[in-house]
Amino acid sequence: xRGFQAAGVVATLLAVSATANAxxxxxxSFESPVIPATGFKDFPASGSPAITNWxxxxxxxGVSIVSGTFSQNxxxxxAQDGIQWLDLTGDGTNSxxxxxxxxxxxxxxxxxLTYFIGNTTGGSIFGTTSTVIVxxxxxxxxxxxxxxxxxxxxxWEQFTHTFTATSGTTTLGFFNDDxxxxxxxxxxxxxxxxxxxxxxxxxEPASLVLLGTALVGLGVIRRRRKTT
Length: 228
Fold this sequence. Notes:
Elements: H1 2-20, E1 40-43, E2 55-57, E3 63-67, E4 71-72, E5 75-76, E6 84-87, E7 98-104, E8 109-119, E9 130-136, E10 139-146, E11 155-164, E12 169-176, E13 186-197, H2 205-227
Antiparallel strand pairs: 1-3, 2-7, 3-6, 4-5, 6-13, 7-12, 8-11, 8-13, 9-10, 9-12
């Protein structure tokens, strides 16, 4: 019986761990709705058609979901994850359009955000860098730039940030910051993880040294008592 009980405890702990490390963002790789292979589809701020779980903002025609088999001007545009990705420049919009999603969070918990930016330097109309601004609760908080060079393909770079939630709901937004002459700014594989409560009461380095010295001294005293 003890073996079964122990197995049950382990299973419960594993389930809790899996839940804690689950992606809090839905449709983070923009796999829904499905678009035709080799093509792309525009999604305006008006919300029709809509991107599953995401809200589009900015001027129309908005952003575009692109098939990973799409190619143009000698450049192939493979997704970083899955078979689709999001182009923040849209179809000729090339402004400050973007997408946002609200998730349930716990005030005081630390959250890790990772996502990929795609960039290409080929095709003459796709610019030289791709820059994304990340908003947290409507405030521009992070600016990341992929300046990797590839004249024939979309190359992806991962960016990671951590923040502490201040309320029961957090809204994350991802917005284009490329110039109007740039027609490609890839976004894919966005993941938000709950890292648990923010650490409190962590000893300063000097305090750790004092603690170590005290423990050594305590050990010496105990050894002396044993020898007397």
